[in-house]
Amino acid sequence: MAQVSNKVTLGFNLDDYSYEARHCVSCSGCRWVELNYVQGKDFAYRCPSWEYGQYNAYGASGKMAIIWDLINGALDYSDPALLDAAYRCNLCGGCDIGCKRNLDLDIQMALTALRARLVEKGVGPMPQHKAVATQIEKSHNIYGIAQKKRLEWMPRDVSPAKNADLLYFAGCRASFVDTEIAQATAKIFKAANKSFMVLKEEPCCGNPLYTTGQMDKARKVAQENIKMIKESGAKTVVFSCAEGYRMVKVDYPKLLGINTADLGFEVKHITELADAWIKDGSLKLENKVDMKVAYHDSCGLGRLSEPWFHWEGELGDWGVWSPPRVMRRGVNGVYEQPRDILKAIPGIELVEMLRRKDQAYCCGGGGGAKEAYPDYSLLVAGERLREASTIGAEALVAACPMCKENFKDAAKEGTGVYDITEIIAMAIKS
Amino acid sequence: MSEEVKTVEEAPPPPPMGIDDEPFAELEAIVGSEYITKSPTICQAYNGRGYGREAFWYQGMTTRPSCVCLPASTEEVARIVKLCNRYDIPYTAGSTYWAVAASCMFRGDIVMIDLKRLDTLEIDEKNMYVKVGPSIIYSQLQAELMKRDLYIYMPGGGGQPSVVSNQMFQGQGILNYRICPWPERRFNGANWVNPEGEVIRCGIFMDREDHAAYGQAPGPDLFGIFKGNTAWWGTMGTLTEIATKVYPFQPERMIPAGLGRDAALDLPPRVQYQNYTLTTEEALQGAMQELYREQICGALNRVPMFWRDIAKAGSRQEFWDLWSKVTEQDTANTHIIRVLFIGYTSQKQLDFEMKVAEDIIVKKYGGTARRTKQTDDGTFQYSIVTGMWKPTGFYASSCVGFESTRCTLTLNDQQVEALNKEPYNSVFFEQHKEHPWYAPFNLGRVMYSEFMAYLDCEKIDPANSKFDMNHVGGLLTFLHSEIPMRVIQNGYSNLFGNGHINSKTELGPASHNYQEWVWKWKAEFDPKDVCRKGLGDHMDVVIQSAPQVLTEEYKAVRDNIASRGWKDAEI
After folding, report:
1. Residue B520 and residue B450 in contact, taking contact as beta carbons nearer than 8 Å
2. I want to staple B161 with a disulfide (CB 3.0 to 4.6 A). Which of A74, B166, B459, B478 is the partner?
3. Tell me: the pLDDT tens digits for A179-196?
4. Which residue of B has its CA nearest to A323?
5. Which of A3, A4, A8, A25 is the best substitution to test chain B (most B C-beta atoms within 10 A)?
6. Counting one residue from A and one from B, how many pairs have CB atoms under 8 Å apart?
7. Quick one: which of A12, A44, A100, A86 has its CA closest to A332?
């Protein structure tokens, strides 16, 4: 039997999660939505992977048992089911906060480290992820499109500044495919009279590399991007993409072994700024938008967005950490600002799904699932759309191009799917 | 003592692993290729633990099944079971994998029948019963019931266990205060696949056309057979659906609010909690007894001080910061009773009951009403039981069950005393002589109690450098000698732990050799011994491999009771 060490670094070495692997008690807190929020037979799961994967291996508690046997050398990395169990999952963090309700195990990190280990062993990531990685290496974006086309989304009536405190990082999806989101974001800056700049050759944030376990590649991207952002002179990097937001705010520090506060610049989502601008009167939303909407908390803006605190230390008696740790339990995500924005728009009626805020069900698109398991991704998105429709929502509003794209792909005719930037833009008087 | 405990390496060789191609192909034909696998990765995720079972997991005593299949119907379950009988392959079934009896396996040739796809949920509002399949959890059921002004108890183990498996194994929770605590008496029917694969439809599930006895419930005796040879751990056959009674509730909704650890249900006006502190344990017990004699309140229970600190603490670290400040003087002076008031019929009823409770607890017994949050995260839809792992990462319930008030409270005192003597006081978490939690059920006709002994999970984990055989020895002796001795001395017979916490073989002689009776039933219904093979006897296996955990004192008490009977024994 492998001997485990009580010295732990909260990083990407799978062996550092033997406490999680050994001492998960299979309570299923990782599978079911916070039980006080269960509303009946339907919509009771928090984990889409387990809901659609059927077997226990697709839930986090099953994966903890698997991880122990991997650490212990009792499971073979070549089992195709291992790859499937590890990657047919959005790494949405639902399981992690479910566990942190009571047990405080680092499930999300353990699952991320599992993917990193699979890559190290040469069995991961999935072929589709390798293809995306190649595109990023070649073209600095996930689509393999020439970078010179990157800024083609920019509306003609918007002129970004050469130097500004705010740097808008549109991300690959909003730059090339979901350009309406980048355009709406630019419109918000303009309406609020806030000067912003963009990077001339904005690269991929590296999220598709990180979430699929390609840590060396992701680290390189992180280092380059941080350098580029610092050189731009920006004080604040602004995202309309929730995945990009949390990648820079949370996952860059993880990759580099630093705290979020040590990045050297602030990281904000456009909803945080727009909310503040609405409240201080610099952004006026005057157009009526008659719509009954449900707001979907994107994982990257919600439970996964809390600042990162690097930690290494020892598990002492009774499993107490030394030195003490700052816990990230998903409660400090960006939850209220998007809601306050929607409530401030004339005509909008906001209705709430019970799986909301830290308990939100994933859109199904993230974590590399959309690329490797498109059918699964659509099932998850369809489930979320069904949840929204049962509370009478005419449209589902997200705050991330990934979520919007996946919902759009799954939506039946007549179901509205919007990014929150589009709704804000609709409310701005031209 | 500790050095004599056998290690895993000295244990007998493991039974055969895996499944042959032929039976696997036949299983595949039953459920479809999408719903069966023998991938070691998938199977490893069924290597169960939790509720103290992780101790076996650490020791390498449990293993993964040979394959996992997901049947879609009772008929498919029956066909799988028949096949297992035909090939002499052991099998077990599970559904939500919290009640770990089903998934804690000690041999590697077991077919795991995962009942996740059996998710019936039908509520007969008018007649107040539900038909429910094994993959439905309590929180789902409770939420559906409350939409209809009905309720069911929520198990102390949490809202996430399967309703079916929990009703088979235990069926207890705080809300059993007004509900009969024996689940068999709440059953209206069951679909039972017996260990040989015959489908027995009982009670409401009978076909009205074919059965004159349509509608008859299975009854307590047949239910006992379902429960099988470990008495409380459901080892005989497989229930694919049950029908069980539900109860009328007050009409106003409970609204969920809050994030993370603060998530809770906001209580409506007709549901209120009130916590009281009493100065002595005797005063607390006296007040509790008067409350249930008056037949008031919706639920009541004693709250140990460390529960309070678990609830307050954000993390294990914070728990220890809080608990390290608590002294024996504090626990001696603080006796908390938590009372739940429910205006089932009206606000007037609730107001009246609160006044009566105030008269009893405050005026008569000198209690003090404490500031109490009007939210719930432990009784109706969620139970904070996993928080119980927070202090140390491991606990073992040394005694779980219900008995008379006198018997329960006496045993509680004795367990507190036992925990505070060598070697246990140097192995277990310091509870400062705190009493365990207990609660009256069925309006005080029985008292539920659960004594939890905590130790550092890493000290019983051979993979960890902190592993200490003294801790393993201390745990086993406490569970198999120290507490069983007091259990049988006190005539505490309604113990859930038989076969789960304690060895049946060891306790049997002092309990009218009931284990021989259940083994006969097992042989009759499961002649090939394929249904959850060996599961009911794993504590016997533990004792066989470490007989020194049975102390001479325990053996003398057991033999005395066995030879002379409980009433005449000199104990």
Report:
1. no
2. B166
3. 999 999 999 999 999 999
4. B317
5. A25
6. 215
7. A100
